[in-house]
Design a protein that fits this description.
It is a single chain. By secondary structure, the chain is mainly α. The protein has 14 helices and 2 strands. The protein has one domain. The protein has a two-stranded antiparallel sheet with strand order 1-2. Helix 4 runs antiparallel to helix 6, helix 11 runs antiparallel to helix 12 and helix 12 packs parallel to helix 14. The two termini are 25 Å apart.
Length: 407
């Protein structure tokens, strides 16, 4: 079993390596071609829309894997998410119309930003399809299909952006490139599941029960994302577009790093479900991967702390990104170990507890950012991100120990 976990964790890591490698080159191209101001504009659009990705996800896969042992309800999951994504696209653009903009301070959301949001919002649909397919890959531990589909989509996006940067130099075309890449990823993912999506059907009873059971996880993920992503939105409102670009670049690299423990969590989650009734076996699995995550995160801090000045090779404007990135790095062990604890608690049916934890931390994060961003900008945001995750860590460790004593 450990070999299977290692194999599928590796596939997920390779998927992230491929997509992040392409994403890294895309970041270089956009940052070098459009500078801090242009990259800030790009960050506003993508950060705002990608917030709604998690609503499309809503943690449905975690409960779907528990409920659908024979895989008979894939189409129900597929079309439930499809419907949700259509509603989200409409919601995203409705909100974008009323977002503030201050031309004098170059803060907020301009007409060109709103146009970018409109175009990029269609990526929610394709991302929701990939999420549904991922449930099949996770259940069968066949993450190689996800690696293939993500790879083709990432390379198509990169290719289209290369053409745009050298021939057209239009920030709007960048968003179209992402849409095309997302479409290709979605199509290949559906093919990889080997499940039929036609004819269109949706078992409303199954969908209703799935949403009902998933609600605590979905809200937990949304609250989690609010406290982790609200900083970019508030920076967009209170600070200049260039500040958003500087912070966005450091965040982009940190986001890649904190995704690594999620790959491991995805792979061990099915095993945690099978072992949750066995106290010692369950605890040993969590302990083993908790220690591994901690050690690995410390190694990454050492490597990337000294590598961070390389931001200047992108463009000298981004020397300012080094400090927030290093602040992010200091919180890396907390994010790594929290990821393992989070899925261990989900396996123990503690979704409601997690929901309340992330709700509390979302409020804490919003309040702290509103207080400190106007004066301290992205430095405050980076510090607050680490503080918020540490609070989550304390809650999760306490709950896990309490659960262990109950057995």
């Amino acid at each position: 079993m450990h070999k299977i976990i290692l194999k599928n964790t590796t596939y997920q890591a390779l998927t992230r390596l491929i997509t992040s490698g392409a994403g890294f080159l895309i970041t270089l191209l956009i940052a070098r071609s459009f500078g801090g101001l242009g990259y800030g504009e790009f960050t506003k659009v993508t950060a705002f829309v990608s917030f709604f990705y998690l609503i499309a996800d809503f943690g449905l896969n975690a409960i779907y894997i528990k409920k659908d042992d024979e895989g008979k309800h894939f189409r129900d999951l597929f079309y439930l998410r499809f419907l949700i994504s259509i509603i989200l696209i409409i919601t995203v653009n409705a909100i974008a119309l009323v977002l503030p903009y201050n031309k004098n301070l170059d803060s907020g959301f301009s007409d060109i930003t709103r146009l970018g949001i409109f175009i990029f919002s269609f990526s929610i649909l394709f991302q929701s399809i990939v999420y549904s397919c991922s449930a099949v890959f996770q259940k069968k531990l066949k993450y190689d299909f996800l690696m293939i589909s993500s790879g083709f989509g990432a390379f198509l996006t990169l290719f289209l952006i290369l053409i745009n940067v050298y021939l057209f130099k239009s920030i709007i075309n960048i968003y179209f490139a992402f849409i095309m890449g997302g479409f290709l990823t979605a199509v290949i993912s559906v093919i990889g599941t080997k499940n039929k999506i036609l004819p269109i059907c949706l078992n409303f009873k199954f969908a209703k029960n799935l949403v009902k059971e998933t609600l605590p996880i979905g809200l937990m993920l949304i609250f989690n994302l609010i406290y982790f992503r609200i900083d970019i939105f508030l920076l967009s409102v209170f600070r200049s577009t260039t500040d958003v670009g500087i912070y966005g670049l450091s965040y982009k690299f940190f986001d890649f790093l904190i995704a690594l423990p999620l790959f491991l969590s995805n792979s061990i989650y099915p095993m945690l479900l099978r072992k949750r009734e066995n106290k010692n076996a369950f605890f040993q699995i969590v302990k083993k991967y908790f220690i591994f995550s901690l050690v690995f995160s410390l190694l990454l801090i050492l490597i990337f702390w000294f590598a961070s000045p390389l931001f200047t090779f992108i463009k000298k404007d981004f020397i300012a990104s080094v400090l927030p990135f290093r602040i992010f790095l200091l919180s890396l062990p907390i994010f790594f170990t929290t990821s393992i604890l989070q899925w261990a608690l989900i396996a123990q049916n503690n979704q409601k507890f997690l929901m309340y934890v992330y709700l509390f931390c979302a409020f804490l994060n919003i309040i702290l950012n509103i207080i400190f961003i106007p004066h301290w900008g992205y430095i405050a945001s980076a510090i607050i991100t680490g503080i918020s995750e540490f609070v989550v860590f304390i809650f999760l460790v306490s709950k896990f120990i309490k659960n262990f004593k109950k057995y």
